[in-house]
Amino acid sequence: MRATIQSLLKEDGILVIPTVADPPPKLNTKNKNVVNEFLDRNYALASIASMSGCCQVTIPLGKHGESPISLSFLAYYGGDKFLLDTILDVYASLQDQADIAASLAPVTDSNGIEPSEVMKEKGNAAYKGRQWNKAVSCYTEAIKLNGANATYFCNRAAAYLELGRFQQAEEDCTEAILIDKKNVKAYLRRGTARESLIRYKESAADFKHALVLEPQNKTAKIAEKRLRKLMKKIRTIQNKMVDYLRLLRCFSFTASRDWLFRQSFANAGLRSVTTNLSHTNSIASTTSMHCWIPKSPNRSKPNLLLVHGFGANAMWQYGEHLRSFTGRFNVYVPDLLFFGLSSTSEPNRTESFQAQCLSRLMEAHGVHTMNIVGISYGGFVGYSLAAQFPEKVEKLVLCCAGVCLEEKDMEDGLFKVPNLEEATEILIPQTPEKLKELIRFSFVKPIRGVPSFFLWDFIDVMCTEFVEEKRDLIKSILKDRRLSDLPRIRQKTLIIWGEEDQIFPLELGYRLKRYIGENAEMVVIKKAGHAVNLEKSKEFLKHLKSFLIDSL
């Protein structure tokens, strides 16, 4: 035994052994068996230390049922001070853990009280005693026993708030609200959690809702007023930052990058043209579309239309691939309505209308047949153009375009975001925080540590015009959308998808492949997200060239 114990111990280590520290038997007890058993146990415990040549400390930790429990700590010979110092450091924590373990023991109650209520009361007592972890453990046990009680979730959220675990507090409050939509405390605590998570808009909404349920609630009144002032101050700072960036536009990284793309497109043999289109007899209705078109189109070449998605303008999304196609195609790169220099006074926000505008734009430039590449939202428009004008579209490439999504997919939890409102705030970012979210959703390995100054600069140049119109475009995509209403296309189609796309999950790509049928082929690019054209540029380009050029 001595060799075994010493082989387990290191000079700077401690061996922990579960033991039993029985109280001594009463004086003059007549039960000799009890006395002998106590002496045998004490001897055995003492023998561990003496036989191994170690120093030993045994700490009682209370009782489990009627049986006392303890831990023995053994240290290497001569490590008395080290052992005692260690015991002093861990003793309080051991006692807390023992209390928590004891509180989670099976509950037996003879007064007819539900076991879950007993655990809740234990949690309340721990909370009042400022034992937050113990309170969380008790409320958790109560939830296990009865997960349909909003109070248990709400109380655990209060303990989480004290521990600074705001995300868990928010989740518990949301559960409580799902169970009881009139639970004022749940709204108040969720508002507090969201404020701590710097989600002021959602926090203010929670406090407002609490006031609807309980108009005289002082906590909600104070918090709602404080947040209103805070958000007003933030908007003022943001506006000043935007104004400052406008003054420094000549030093803008985004504007400079945009200028370089313009030079690149011009050097590739394209020119910038804005075309006025007419859709109605109304004089007040005006639509104009900007497009990069060939300076000298060769009518013997096929035509290629590159349609962009949300985010930066078309130059940013296709600039890296442009020269790979200008030698073999007449390349056209338009700005969709409300992007770049394109706009309309028409109220129609559907991808169908966007497709009709593109068709008229191509007709205006003498293009009657074309191949189309559509990235994300551009894929929606490209698909619609192929469906409405099948005689004009020869081949179609759809990149991470969730054309087959349905309105119910949002409710079914297919997407990372909980609702359409949150999706629009991310896809049309107005703050650095939302732009960072968009980057995280778009890339498997997003760039980190980008200074807020550059993010503000990008937002100012790319994201501040036609904000409401762009939001309407997103809402129009999902409104009443059903797969059964989607027309089937017959053109040869290539579907390209990032395996880890978090905006339009890969399932939508497979769904689209099944829906189009034998005329579609699908390529899944590994270790790529939604921005597969940027993140895996070379592989993306290889598949485009194989599909569009090799068959010419």
UniProtKB/TrEMBL annotation:
TPR repeat copies, ranges: 184-217
Gene3D superfamilies, sorted: alpha/beta hydrolase, Amidase signature (AS) domain, Tetratricopeptide repeat domain
Keywords: TPR repeat
Record's keyword annotation contains DNA damage: no
Any Pfam family hit: TPR_1
Annotated PROSITE patterns: TPR (PS50005)
AB hydrolase-1 domain span: 302-405, 482-536
SUPFAM superfamilies associated with the record: alpha/beta-Hydrolases, Amidase signature (AS) enzymes, TPR-like
SMART domains: TPR (SM00028)
PANTHER family from the UniProt entry: AMIDASE 1 (PTHR46310), OUTER ENVELOPE PROTEIN 64, MITOCHONDRIAL (PTHR46310:SF4)
Name the UniProt record assigns to this protein: AB hydrolase-1 domain-containing protein
The organism of origin for this protein: Brassica campestris
